[in-house]
Design brief:
There is one protein chain. With 164 residues, this protein is of the alpha+beta class. A six-stranded antiparallel beta sheet has the order 1-2-3-4-5-6. The longest helix is centred in the first third of the chain and has 24 residues. The chain is globular and about 35 Å long. The N and C termini lie far apart (42 Å).
């Protein structure tokens, strides 16, 4: 019985550390929506949107986004993919150096959490450990638009993520 209880607690620890990361970075946050992003049919990541009290997304307020990766990806893949999406959804931003500091290789099951702090900062955590703060004018809108904007790669993914 003890072994079963220990196994149960061990399995829940990653979930509780992620929840505490969101709650410490964004007090009062609750899950708003969730979706799985697929590329050519292959699932890349599961995304979850957290807003204060689970309210509808309001770009003027802080919110958090969690990505749980379902594939191994390199830092290069994450930085290049982000740069391509930033260019596709707007003008190029001089962020490559900051992104290289924020992103690391991910393996199946790893989680990145991004939480906005005002319009010009986003804090990043990898598996519950703070890794960096991305700073740039209007970075919240520019970065989060990749997942939550009107011109995302998948309208159905975005609607589900926004809880619509």
């Amino acid at each position: 019985m003890r072994k079963l209880a220990l196994l149960f607690v061990t399995l829940l620890l990653p979930l509780s550390s992620q929840a505490s990361t969101i709650n410490s970075a964004l007090p009062g946050a609750e899950l708003r929506g969730a979706a799985t992003f697929r590329f050519i049919g292959f699932p890349l990541y599961e995304a979850r949107l957290f807003t204060k009290s689970g309210a509808p997304l309001d770009w003027s307020k802080d919110f958090g986004l969690e990505l749980k990766y379902l594939r191994n990806l390199t830092e290069y893949d994450l930085v290049e993919g982000t740069m391509r999406e930033l260019n596709r959804t707007g003008t190029a931003l001089p962020l490559r150096g900051q992104l290289e500091q924020c992103f690391d290789d991910v393996r199946n099951g790893d989680r990145y959490i991004a939480v906005s702090k005002g319009q010009n900062q986003i804090g990043f955590w990898l598996n519950g450990n703070r890794v960096c703060t991305l700073k740039h004018p209007q970075i919240k809108t520019r970065f989060m638009t990749i997942f939550l904007g009107d011109n995302t790669r998948s309208k159905s993914f975005t609607r589900k993520l926004k809880g619509e």
